[in-house]
């Protein structure tokens, strides 16, 4: 990642969640639009009447929550994840991408998996608008790529078909969308950046300077057409290239010589001139002034367009064998990165994916999700304590008063407490069955002392 870019800040994460919380699901993308594979599948579920079933509603809710409560990540990012067939789910990640960067999402599915995974990318510009679907496909399409038209947050969502399980690996990376314009050089040769002061502060630098030996070939950064070759007092010998795909003009200045003519069609990598120091660069070392001018916008920072980060996502060291399991928090004061709720000691957590030495997790009720260090979690093997579950207590499949009651205790029975979530306790009965009980309601059933 460009050292000048920043990961998602806590304030913006809170804003994202606040925006999500006050937005009706019908206003979020993917419901009205039927052009993506995900939306077409949702329409097929509705046509079959499955959208009104409990499973269908949970599938739609999981899709919405993946956008509303994505895990905040720093690129590049790699994760191994798991979707269980029994419970509809989806995964979402959000990262900042610079204007001009190429966002690349690659999803590999375990060969034994029959599920189809829907992959989508949403752009979120500001707090006043909901994320907008800008790219979509499935794991069968291979790599999903797009060029960021502006600096914004981008949300990646992956979801399997209903009642299908899948193990997958996702790689999310942002890098250069244009070829580097000086032969044999890279980002380390850029010595003067966008916005640097010029003429004693009277103007700012509207490009980047790439230093190289005089006569080094200057290359076309993209396919396109040469629109102008001329000489000016400031730029010296200059060349203008209209990018065929990007709705932008690329500017090369201070050339020792231009080796191209107006009207010529070029491909990325073709030589258009040689590095020099003509124009107002006569007193400096030879270099290329490289600029980009977007139609309707004017000059933009070209560095993200040509900078290819060398960083690699850390190798996955968290155990993949635990994916899909419920664990509990073993350290007090943790929170879901970067601005999720504080997690109480012994809180239950569901493991959905592994990245580096962390797990992507969700709370049992799906109300929040994020990344937690693997070392901060422990298994449910050793119970926290024992308690008496009173006669008539409902044992539910989720920590919610409205959750399905799997069982009703017929008589007082001892149970092991494995984890908690708010007022609910995850318990294991003598029969071996696990489920959630309302701790407050259970306590009220205790007989009064005589």
Q: Any overview of this molecule?
A:
- The protein is mainly β and 450 residues long.
- The chain has 4 domains: 10-175, Jelly Rolls (Sandwich); 187-306, Distorted Sandwich (Glucose Permease (Domain IIA)), CATH 2.70.70.10; 320-378, SH3 Domains (SH3 type barrels); 385-444, SH3 type barrels (Roll).
- Helix content is 11%, strand content 40%.
- It has helices spanning 10-21, 37-47, 54-68, 303-306, 439-444; strands at 71-72, 77-83, 91-97, 102-109, 117-124, 132-138, 144-147, 152-160, 166-175, 190-192, 197-198, 203-204, 208-211, 217-219, 224-232, 236-243, 248-258, 265-266, 271-275, 287-294, 298-300, 326-329, 334-335, 342-343, 348-355, 358-362, 369-373, 377-378, 385-389, 394-396, 405-408, 413-421, 424-428, 434-438.
- Strands 10, 13, 14, 15, 16, 17, 18, 19, 20 and 21 form a 10-stranded antiparallel β-sheet that branches. Strands 2, 4, 7, 9, 22, 25, 26, 27 and 28 form a 9-stranded antiparallel β-sheet that branches.
- Strand 15 (224-232) and strand 16 (236-243) form a beta hairpin.
């Amino acid at each position: 990642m460009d050292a000048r870019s920043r990961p998602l800040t806590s304030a913006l994460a809170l804003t994202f969640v606040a925006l999500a919380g006050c937005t009706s699901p019908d206003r979020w993308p993917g419901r009205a639009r039927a052009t993506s594979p995900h939306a077409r599948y949702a329409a097929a579920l509705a046509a079959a009447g499955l959208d009104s079933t409990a499973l269908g509603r949970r599938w739609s809710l999981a899709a919405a929550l993946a956008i509303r409560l994505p895990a905040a990540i720093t690129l590049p990012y790699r994760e191994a994840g798991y979707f269980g067939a029994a419970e509809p789910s989806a995964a979402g990640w959000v990262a900042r991408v610079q204007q001009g960067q190429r966002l690349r999402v690659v999803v590999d599915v375990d060969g034994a998996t029959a599920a189809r995974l829907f992959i989508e990318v949403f752009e979120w510009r500001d707090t006043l608008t909901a994320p907008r679907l800008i790219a979509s496909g499935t794991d069968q399409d291979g790599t999903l790529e797009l060029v960021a038209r502006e600096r914004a947050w981008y949300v990646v969502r992956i979801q399997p078909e209903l009642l299908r399980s899948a193990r997958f690996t996702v790689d999310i990376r942002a890098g250069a969308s244009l070829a580097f314009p000086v032969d044999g050089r890279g980002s380390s040769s850029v010595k003067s950046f966008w916005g640097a002061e010029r003429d004693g502060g009277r103007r700012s630098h509207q490009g980047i300077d790439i230093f190289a030996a005089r006569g080094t070939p200057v290359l076309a950064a993209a396919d396109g057409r040469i629109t102008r070759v001329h000489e000016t007092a400031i730029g010296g010998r200059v060349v203008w290239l209209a990018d065929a795909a990007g709705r932008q003009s690329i500017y090369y200045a201070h050339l020792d010589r231009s080796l191209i003519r107006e009207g010529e069609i070029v491909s990325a990598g073709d030589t258009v001139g040689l590095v020099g120091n003509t124009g107002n660069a006569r007193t400096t070392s030879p270099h290329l002034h490289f600029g980009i001018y977007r139609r309707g916008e004017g000059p933009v920072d070209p560095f993200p367009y040509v900078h290819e980060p060398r960083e690699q996502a850390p190798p996955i060291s968290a155990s993949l064998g635990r994916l899909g399991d419920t664990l509990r928090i073993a350290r007090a004061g943790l929170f879901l990165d970067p601005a999720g709720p504080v997690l109480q000691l012994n809180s239950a957590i569901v493991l959905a994916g592994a990245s580096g030495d962390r797990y992507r997790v969700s709370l049992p009720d799906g109300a929040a999700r994020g990344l937690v260090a693997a070392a901060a979690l422990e298994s449910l093997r050793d119970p926290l304590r024992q308690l008496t579950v009173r006669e008539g207590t409902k044992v539910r499949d989720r920590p919610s008063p409205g959750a399905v009651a799997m069982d009703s205790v017929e008589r007082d029975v001892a149970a092991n407490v494995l984890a908690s979530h708010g007022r609910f306790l995850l318990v294991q009965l003598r029969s071996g069955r696990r489920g959630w009980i309302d701790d407050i309601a259970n306590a009220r059933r205790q007989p009064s002392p005589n």
